[in-house]
UniProtKB/TrEMBL annotation:
Its cofactor is a divalent metal cation. It comes from the Eukaryota. GO terms for molecular function: hydrolase activity; metal ion binding; nuclease activity. Belongs to the HARBI1 family. It comes from Pogonophryne albipinna. Keywords: Hydrolase, Metal-binding, Nuclease, Nucleus. Pfam families: DDE_Tnp_4. This is DDE Tnp4 domain-containing protein. InterPro entries: HARBI1-like, HARBI1_dom. Transmembrane segments: none annotated. It is found in: Nucleus. Residues 226-381 form the DDE Tnp4 domain. One of its GO terms (cellular component) is nucleus.
Amino acid sequence: MEAADVFLPVIAWCRTRQSQDSQAEARQQKRRLKLLAFQRLRLKKLRETWRLREKVYKQSKLRRLCSHDTWMKAITHQFLRDHRRQSPKVWLHPRTSDWWENTAATFTDHEWLQHFRVSRETFSYLCATLNPQLKRQDTNYRLCIPLEKRVALTLYKLAHPCDYRTVADLFAVGVASVCHCVHEFCTVVIEVLKPQLVVTPNKFQLENIEECFHHTYQIPQCIGVLDSMNITISRPPHLNSEKPDRESYLAILFQAVVDDKGLFWDLSMSCPTWVNDNSGELLVCEDFSTRMHNVCRTDSSCVVIGDAGYPSKNWLLKPSTNTSGLTAEQELLNTQIIAARSVAHYAFERLKGRWRCLSRRNDCNVEIVKDMVETCCVLHNLCEKNNDMCLPDWIGQEPFQTVDENPQKNGDAQSLDDLLQLIQDSAE
């Protein structure tokens, strides 16, 4: 009985403990269920809140888009109203062309010749001949430079040692326009007029040149006189050679052959090189020697007269440099050659006197300088063929003229007259 009394309380305590544990587990399960229900309810409320916010955002966004669209329509309408097409307006620097339009129009023939170095007839011929290449049309933005003004400002630039700005102010155009007009005019003259005015003489013309030289200077089979001059230029940026001495200057060697009338029929120019007053004569390029050799034709023994400083060629006739041991015939030949060389001398003097841009340093590009020199030679031949006057004050002496198809010089050139008289007396 005592053992039962001992175990009964233990069993009762265990049952009580088990019941308490069951109740505690039931309470925890109930608490978990309540927490889960609360979380579900909270999540549901969050979803509803986000749906509401999304709905409000979409509505506000739609309102903003609608207002933006209305705003853009208003701005577009205002922009189109303020920027309706109007007549074009271009900024233009005000200039007055009174000198060309009024003053130059009243020039006498002498004043016109002083300013442009060509007669009015030659000027009209240039305008008519170069019209297809130089004529421009007006645009909606500005008027083009008339053809006559383009030709006139180019002739003025070539005839006077002035810069582009001076010509621009005188003709009431821009500096860039003057530069463009000059370059374009030179290019067109070389393309159109040079093949007509600076050409190698044909067989019949060569015979006439030979006859004139032989009749005037008693030099047989002479078809031209060779001479050269230096065109001073600025140093181009690509030139790497240094100046050899203080007396040297940078120049382009221009070389030409002149016929009995003082017209150029062959032109050659070298690359920029350092020269000085003591530099000897030289042939510009091998092509020139080849051309002269082909023209002179060794079988016919035609010659070109040149200075004693040129290298010896079978087509080149030069005076003797050693004058101490010459015979009477050699001295007479030297005298005849010197007299004949005056034809080229006077032709170059007239060229430089008429186109003064050749007498000063040219700051243009090397290729443009060469084009300007060729253009001046073409215009020289045109003026000589049209018998345009070469005024004495252009070259500081009496002009060289052609009398009876023979080159002569007026005025005080007693030395040349003495030489010609000596040649004629010796021939008799």
